[in-house]
Amino acid sequence: MPSPFPGMDPYLEGYLWPDVHSALASKIRQHLTPLLRPKYAARLEVYFAEDPFPEGEIGILYPALEVVETQQRPTLPSTGSTLTITPATLVLPVTQAIQVRLTSVEIRDTANNKLVASIEILSPVNKREPGLTAYRKKRQRLYQADVHLLELDLLRRGTRPFAQPRLPDVSYCIALTRAQAKQVEIWPVDLPTPLPVVPVPLHSSDSDVPLDLQAALVAIYDEAAYDLTLDYRQSPPPPALSSDDVDWSKALLDSMD
User: Fold this and answer.
1) For 174-204, b where at least 16 C-beta lie within 10 A, e where not — what string?
2) Which of 173, 245, 209, 66 is nearest to 164 (CA)?
3) What does the DSSP 8-state code read for residue 8?
4) What is the CB neighbour count within 10 angstroms for residue 228?
5) Which of 35, 71, 207, 241 has the most CB atoms at less than 10 Å from its CB?
6) CA-CA distance, 103 to 48, in Å (whole number)?
7) β-pairing, 115-121 with 148-153?
8) Could you give the 3-state DSSP secondary structure of residue 255?
9) Distances 205 to 39, 72, 116, 208 between C-alpha atoms, Å
10) What is the pLDDT of residues 183-221, one digit of tens each?
């Protein structure tokens, strides 16, 4: 069963996101390979980012923490003091840093294995500190290395690493920074809008190849059977939708019944 949403499905932005992230990277490689060969090849680059402050994703991306009530114990006065120690109201688990597995798609020329373009699917850890600063440094390294950078931001929460005052306030956004370019090409995407077909640049002597993002998303939704897991009767993961998007999505989901 396909997703009821014509574009990005906001219900995929929760605990399913790690699976969506990996599956989308693999599907993008699959779609690009016939268009790239024999001069270029698409490779999956897997790396890990540490999320030292995962509290904001508890209950969204990560399992909820348990809140354990303290047991009432008799309070004894401190040695040499008449003051009584106030017992803690709650006992919470110590939050540990989480290793997040991220996958990007690298386009390399087959003659020299030179990195030509990088396709980055943004994750929540890329869109808040300290991961935001680390990711922006990676963007700068790629730019300085004359590598094309295509960024897919399919998450409504967090700060976009390519944010600027003129960037429209939309749910999703695709950005392309071509090697040595002084401008960034932007595809703003509202919730009701299908994901665009975007260019993947290669060497200057070769034409861009098209990447159909909506086709890739539709394919992984079907292959992973996300419809068997998602409960569209509940609200999507935070942040809350705008009032217009709430009305639109409600009408859309009601029409599917």
Assistant:
1) bbbbbbeeeeeebbebbbebbbbebbbbbee
2) 173
3) -
4) 7
5) 241
6) 9
7) parallel
8) helix
9) 12, 74, 12, 10
10) 999 999 999 999 999 999 999 999 999 999 999 999 999
